[in-house]
Amino acid sequence: MGTSLPLPIIDLSSPEKISTAQLIRQACLEHGFFYVENHGIEEELIKGVFKESKGFFDLPLEKKMALLRRDLLGYTPLYAEKLDPSVTSIGSFSDSKESFYFGSFEGVLAQRYPNQWPSQDLLPSWRQTMECYYKNVLSVGRKLLGLIALALDLDEDFFEKVGALNDPAAVVRLLRYPGEVISSDVETYGASAHSDYGMVTLLLTDGVPGLQVCRDKSKQPHIWEDVPGIKGAFIVNIGDLMERWTNGMFRSTLHRVMPVGKERYSVVFFLDPNPDCNVKCLESCCSGTCPPRFPPILAGDYLKERFRLTYATSSSS
């Protein structure tokens, strides 16, 4: 692994909202990544999520394949994705990871896109643990978005007022990276280089390294820096739709996961807007000399196209 990137640590329990928002603003301008601690989710619940996640990925393949991804939700086997389509030029391997997505269990989106759950006979505590975690992490995400709104000199409830948090397309993704290097001739990726698609991502890891970020995606060759986990803290990063809202001011930073020869587990929460939310440049982020760089787009249309490309490129591998 390379040089570690010293990221700012945001205390979510601080009563000083404006100063906390300013710290977030600086982090989003400089890195697009930061840590969040004192978020209020109990350590026992986090341990339970990792335990239940490992229990699922330890199941026989046929049990997992019975819950194969449908409308994104469910199981995705090894090598089913390629987050960076350009890696076809250096080899044919897709990303070395398996995952399980689940989303909201209330509201219109939950009815339209029902979750798939492992059998209670196989994993008795699984659904209860995951639903509890979902409610808690969604609450943290909403609080964080309020601070991000303040960081943009907006009302704290801005994202609620524009409909982004009206039945948001929020999902949890459980991930297992086997960790082995497949071939000495071809570079292997746990997750190839990509930016996240939505508003904001909250990541928990098991402490095994592998996450790297590239702060300047326009420079070649890319310079990658390690982002180590901090026990109990979220690693937070800005997604593409937030970058579009801010006209590129807040960075949706390129990142990847590299295998380190050891199995790695992570839990990712993607807080994405309601699909009908119109994402257009904020007035405070554009001017006559700095016009909008991106046209307005419905969040659902943008996300659908990004997922189509992710899974289409992997199918040929």
From TrEMBL:
Alphabetical list of InterPro entries matching this protein: DIOX_N, IPNS-like_FE2OG_OXY, IPNS-like_sf, Oxoglu/Fe-dep_dioxygenase_dom
PROSITE patterns xrefs: FE2OG_OXY (PS51471)
Pfam families linked to this entry: 2OG-FeII_Oxy (PF03171), DIOX_N (PF14226)
Keywords: Iron, Metal-binding, Oxidoreductase
Residues in Fe2OG dioxygenase domain copies: 168-273
Domain of life: Eukaryota
Coiled coil start-end: none
KW Coiled coil (keyword) present: no
Protein name stated in the entry: 2-oxoglutarate-Fe(II) type oxidoreductase isoform X1
Organism: Camelina sativa (False flax)
